[in-house]
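Try it yourself: sequence plus glutamic acid, in.
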Amino acid sequence: MTENHKPVLRFAPSPTGMLHIGGARTALFNWLYARHTGGKFLLRIEDTDRERSTPEAVGAILNGMTWLGLTWDGETVYQFARVQRHREIAEQLLAQGKAYRCYATAQELDEMRAAQRAAGKPIRYDGRWRDRDPNEAPSGAPFVVRLKAQQSGETIVHDVVQGDVRFANEQLDDMVLLRSDGNPTYMLAVVVDDYDMGITHIIRGDDHLNNAARQLQIIQAMGWLEPVYGHLPLIHGPDGAKLSKRHGALAVEAYRDMGYLPETMRNYLLRLGWSHGNDEIIPTAQAIEWFNLESVGKSPARLDFKKLDNLNAHYIRSMDGRALADEVAAVLARKEPPQTLSQSARARLIAAMPSLKERAKTLVELADAAEFLYADGARILDDAAKRVLTEEARGLNGEFLALTAQIPWTAAALEEKARSFAGAKGLKLGQVAQPIRAALTGRTTSPPVFAILEILGREESVARIEAYSA
Ligand code: GLU
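Structure, out:
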């Protein structure tokens, strides 16, 4: 633990692709635990694999985290920049006799493995240089540095999610710490970085559970304090199968583009593997208050897009008009070609938002349903609106317009006029209102039509209705 005994957590992605949904959940759990405990949440980019790491992937991870609101404390740590320090620890282990140089050639190791395979034995480094006198080493020959691991007994990962997971040491061979080119292995780098960063809790996917045993061996050899481990079960697709490309929508960015809010994503990702009774709606502030490691589930969580939609609809409804107008503006800015929202369109959006937001499951739907508010001029009709705007209906539109010339342009006055007009004609209010709606919006569902008339204003409304009047 650090001096002040507050937990220090980290998210340690490898920048080999997008920030995917599993990684985002790992980041969220670490972040929540840090915020819950008043500890720290650090970010480390594990870019030691130079072939597979790309700056684009680093960018995608940082953007994804920022979009999700998972702010990290302090500077981002780049693992590759710390290679010297990793080597230094390997040297220390060598000096203490806890690691050794192995001069086995690639060919020798191939032969070793072939023999093991032929004998039906597990494939494992056989320790051939473990106790050999270093003086026997061929001079100038390349070598790797291996950990002189315990050969008997057990390495136990005390895991807050999985319980105690035991590994027989005889199953774990002497792992490579430094490669023959002097570069550290991933196993060494992770352990050294976690130590130097003061990490107290390691929460990550359970695909790293076996690595934990290996990493513990290094930690124990160094005499460092063991961190608390929590290995999260994987996320499965809606069909229960392991999550794969086939399921689509793996990148966090895709969720943004589909119109999901960061708050929705935090709530949704939280529920993928963590529960608090039957609560489904858990806003972030509440999540920070409640989050613990004991309530992480042991079995794989399943994606459920219906739940995601329901949560998103909930958070859209709970947002205020201005903030939603900003979100709509962001959706428009991402369009090809990008569209901008004028000040007047923004004002209209905000005015109509109380009703608009009741209907939208995503921001994309919201932007789409609001199109009639930010794009001026006569509407292009959808099929249902075409059916509404019969010759007769267009006639009603024309008559109604004529009646409005002298009245104030307010929702109340317009509605009153429409009622009396319908009454005089022996029609229901809807029979008058629906053709107006179709002309104003190009659709047959929308926020209340008289409110729209007021929001669009006299000039714009008249122009749109005239386009579908007879
Ligand atoms: N870099 C690893 C990954 O992206 C995570 C390592 C860790 O959390 O210890 O899977």
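One thing you can check immediately is this: Residues 383-466 form a domain with the Arc Repressor Mutant, subunit A fold (CATH 1.10.10.350).
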